[in-house]
Design brief:
Layout: H1 9-20, H2 26-44, E1 46-48, H3 55-58, E2 60-63, E3 66-69, E4 77-79, E5 85-89, E6 96-99, E7 105-108, E8 113-117, E9 125-136, E10 144-147, E11 151-155, E12 159-164, E13 170-177, E14 180-184, E15 192-194, E16 198-203, E17 210-213, H4 216-219, E18 227-233, H5 234-245, E19 249-251, E20 260-265, H6 270-280, E21 284-288, E22 294-298
Parallel strand pairs: 9-10, 19-22
Antiparallel strand pairs: 1-4, 2-3, 5-8, 6-7, 7-9, 8-9, 9-12, 10-11, 11-14, 12-13, 13-16, 14-15, 16-17, 18-20, 21-22
Helix pairs in contact: 1-2
Length: about 300
């Protein structure tokens, strides 16, 4: 545990993420990750004496069979601020809206989870997200932070969207109004400031994030029950529909970016959405693997 003491919290987050990447199944890793972020948030609100302050943040014990967060702290400390943490989750095709303690609003997309404090600490507002959410944040002097497994988003007050589903290769942040600073988790000093109608996007294999100009309002229409695809690749369509319907959709290599589609999904089931895609693009067909993964492949029809 000595290797974590004396380090900044961002370095601890980065090293912890690297440590658990290959040691936990996806669901368990997500739970452990959320507990680490929650511990960091709580530790910021305490005065911990001595150079071992970070033992309260990342007391990590390596045991045979896994890594566990140190839940019981034995260090002497003076408690200054306590709050209860709440968690909001959504299922397939479900959307929920919640009002945060500062009167900001958050819309949570399907198959997502938002963890937030019942009362924000005086110095900072912070939430933890897994999945996709739209934020309408009330302006305040203290920053509003959104943490995901792969993203760190900081704003004073604005309207923006964050997407980081654990079963997708792509993570993104989209700005509708105001400004936001976006960085990968563990590297906030490398943050990029977005302008309205810009998308910060990072995919597996990319060396750095890409910035694109988009129609941010259209991209956020899922809040109203519509999923709008504009000139979207099959890869993008598979990721967004997979997250919406709670299924895994793979695209056959070679056609991931070959076609670009524009269409809207409202209240359609997965079967209906699949039919819409095939009507627009008869060059593709759908199949299902043994593990129930949906596959989009090139049509065999002559």
């Amino acid at each position: 545990m000595d290797k974590y003491w004396g380090q900044s919290e961002e370095n601890v987050i980065k090293r912890f993420r690297e440590a658990v990447t290959d040691r936990f199944p996806a669901q368990r890793k997500e739970i452990v990750w959320e507990r680490l972020l929650r511990s960091i948030w709580q530790a910021r609100a305490r005065r911990v004496s001595g150079i071992r302050r970070w033992a309260a943040v990342a007391g990590i014990v390596l045991l045979t069979g896994g890594i566990y967060l140190w839940q019981t702290l034995s260090l002497p400390e003076k408690q200054e601020y306590k709050t209860e943490w709440l968690t909001l989750t959504t299922n397939n095709e479900e959307r929920l809206q919640v009002t945060l303690p500062d009167s900001s609003s958050v819309w949570l997309n399907a198959n997502s989870r938002l963890t937030y404090p019942k009362a924000f600490m005086p110095q900072q507002r912070e939430v933890v997200l897994s999945g996709e959410a739209f934020f309408d944040i009330r302006p305040e002097k203290k920053a509003f932070l959104v943490r995901t497994e792969r993203l760190h988003v900081s704003v004073p007050g604005t309207r923006f969207m964050v997407s980081d589903y654990r079963n997708t290769e792509t993570v993104e942040a989209i700005l509708l109004s105001g400004s936001v600073k976006v960085a990968t988790t563990g590297e906030p000093h490398k943050a990029t400031t977005l302008k309205p109608n810009q998308q910060w996007r990072l995919s597996a294999g990319d060396m750095q994030a890409q910035i694109h100009d988009i129609d941010a309002v259209s991209r956020a229409q899922w809040v109203t029950g519509q999923i709008i695809f504009e000139d979207a690749s099959l890869k993008d369509i598979a990721e967004r529909l997979g997250s919406w319907y709670g299924i895994k959709i793979d695209v056959e290599k070679g056609i991931e970016t070959m076609y670009r589609l524009t269409f809207v999904i409202r209240n359609e089931t997965w079967t209906q959405a699949r039919s819409v895609i095939q009507m627009i693009l008869p060059e593709v067909a759908f199949a299902e693997s043994d593990d129930k993964t949906k596959i989009i492949r090139a049509s065999q029809k002559k």
